[in-house]
Design brief:
The protein has 105 residues and is an alpha+beta fold. It has one domain. It has three helices and five strands; from the N terminus they run αβααββββ. Strands 1, 2, 3, 4 and 5 form a five-stranded antiparallel beta sheet that branches. A hairpin with a 2-residue loop joins strand 3 and strand 4. The longest helix has 15 residues. It is rod-shaped.
Length: 105
């Protein structure tokens, strides 16, 4: 009985000394690096852009010539890193404009 009581008290004390809630680090999207963005040039075709940056994170159904790249690292409710890039192609599917919304390295 004494050992059982000591066990119960020990378990209670251990449960009171928790280290906190574990928060998972979540990574989403395509990693964007400044050196890769610098390789982009107006006039490149879509295949060349994919070769440099990879597939876009998402494409807008209503604007098929606009590609969006997004990268985010979060832990709990905290955003640790975030990058956003918009690539616009002309009617001939050639790179027309690069809009860097936010780029974290």
């Amino acid at each position: 009985m004494k050992k059982f009581l000591i066990l119960i008290i020990s378990l209670f004390l251990i449960s009171c000394s928790s280290t906190g809630i574990y928060k998972v680090t979540v990574t989403q999207g395509t990693v964007l690096k400044q050196e890769d963005v610098n390789k982009l040039e107006v006039g490149m075709n879509k295949d060349q852009v994919i070769f440099i940056l990879g597939n876009p994170t998402f494409e807008n159904f209503f604007e098929p010539n606009v590609w969006n790249y997004f990268y985010q690292v979060t832990r709990g409710n905290d955003t640790l890193s975030e990058s956003k890039l918009k690539i616009i192609f002309d009617a001939d599917n050639l790179l027309e404009e690069i809009i860097v919304i936010k780029l974290d390295d």
